[in-house]
Specification:
Blueprint lengths: L1 H24 L6 H30 L3 H27 L2 H4 L2 H22 L1
Helix pairs in contact: 1-2, 2-3, 3-5
Length: 122
């Protein structure tokens, strides 16, 4: 629980910092399409940072493996989805964009696990 909460806090900080960097530090250096990709990575990172924090808080009330796994799937999703989009937008290497769907699937699995835990335990 504490680890997920700390990871959530760090990801929140990083999402804000990377969003600001994209808006101010990359403007004029990347194309509009690349900046759009960067922004998508920031948005998904922030959305799922909230999910990680909510999962960590939920773990205070309910001890269930599915909640723990949901939190870790959100973390994995951020690394794979947002991470690959950050790298792709900076490098243009298309192979990196092929990693992104695995992050999306991780997010989906996390949401299913969290939903299952809520229905079962609350």
């Amino acid at each position: 629980m504490k680890a997920l909460l700390l990871i959530g806090v760090i990801n929140g900080f990083l999402a804000v910092a990377l969003g600001a960097f994209g808006a101010h530090g990359l403007e004029g250096r990347l194309t509009e399409k690349q900046l759009g990709t960067w922004e998508k990575a920031v948005n998904y990172q922030m959305f799922h940072t909230s999910a990680i924090l909510a999962t960590g808080i939920l773990m205070l009330k309910v001890q269930a493996a599915s909640i723990t796994w949901a939190g870790w799937m959100f973390v994995l999703g951020i690394v794979l989805f947002s991470g690959s989009l950050y790298l792709y937008s900076m490098t243009g290497v298309r192979t990196l964009a092929m990693i992104t769907p695995f992050g999306g699937v991780s997010f989906l699995v996390g949401w299913v696990l969290l939903g299952t835990a809520v229905v079962k335990h609350l």
